[in-house]
Amino acid sequence: MPKLSVPLEELRQRASLKWRLYPADVLPLWVAEMDTRMHPAVQQVVLEACERGDTGYPYGGDYAVAFAAMAQTRWGWTVDPHTQVRRAGDVMNSISAVLEATTNHGDAVVINPPVYTPFRQVVSGYGREIVEAPLSPEGRLDLDALAEAFSGPAAPRAYLLCSPHNPTGTVHTREELSAVMALAQTHGVQVISDEIHACLVDPGHEFVPLLSVPGGEHAVVATSAGKAWNLAGFKAGLIIAGTAATEVLDGLPPLAQQSAGHLGNLAHTAALTHAQDWVDELMVEVAANKRLLQAELAEKLPKVVYEPRPGTYLAWVDCSGLGLGDPARHFREHGSVAFSPGVVFGATHRQWVRINLACSPEVVRDAVARMVTSLESAQRSAVN
Hints:
The chain is an alpha/beta fold. The protein has helices spanning about 10, 15-20, 40-50, 60-75, 90-100, 115-125, 145-150, 175-185, 245-250, 260-275, 275-300, 325-335, 360-384, and strands at about 25-30, 85-90, 110, 130, 160, 190-195, 220-225, 235-240, 315-320, 335-340, 340, 350-355.
């Protein structure tokens, strides 16, 4: 049975953010939650812990060991779980901890808009200054823009990399990542990479861990099994330092390792240990949904432009051809379908929306149909 085949009536019984923020008639394809059921092995571990009352504080390094084993098998990347890895909470709390360990109040931090909204929040919220190095028009890392940002008057101390990139779905190449690390070393910039989407890559495409490229030994990665196995409700993550950056781990804030939950660690460890095939099978379905969305838009809304990218289960869609002031709001108010507005990822992307494709093909078709209905409704209102 397909992973993304949970009936809509069952999904609407969920009490999570995706299903409760908007009224029940709104089809939610915005926040990055997947329409899947929990993997049986993960569910069993959690239920057994609850049955024996094993709901205390986290202990040990099983999660790190499981990640290291996966990294070796999946990417050929060797990680020492004892010297390079620390337990942490979710990825953004991990990034904030690394920023506190490597930068000071008022320091500048580089980001690549359009980019995951909390990148801005974590930089400004912790008293750091944002320096933008926008992606290229093709949605890839712009090395010239990065070089300019790194060498600019703000003298940034850190760079937040999103890999694979959210919202565009770009998967950075080994050559691009090696060039990033060379630039960072030249200018004394600490690279911190969010790799929570690392396993969410379409079949036939390669994810490259930043710490595996030349120069990557100086970087730090924040990651979690939460995204790929739909375990956001079980807070747990890992901070992984390159072999030349392990001193960063010693400088983490005192409570950085206390923000993970015991059940989260158990669930994530079980996912990494028992559910590797599951995520690969899932991405076959996601890749099919990307092709389906592209075909549906080409047929029914040809002014909307979508070019599938191999990373994540998120679609980055250009609606500028429709001439709408706020496409996401328009689709929600006139079509009862909720997407993430592009402007929250980058100020110059007001005409874009991000669409969550971790859903059934029927939901993808329904979403496009609702987009069409919203435009027809607006046209009727204009006439009247």
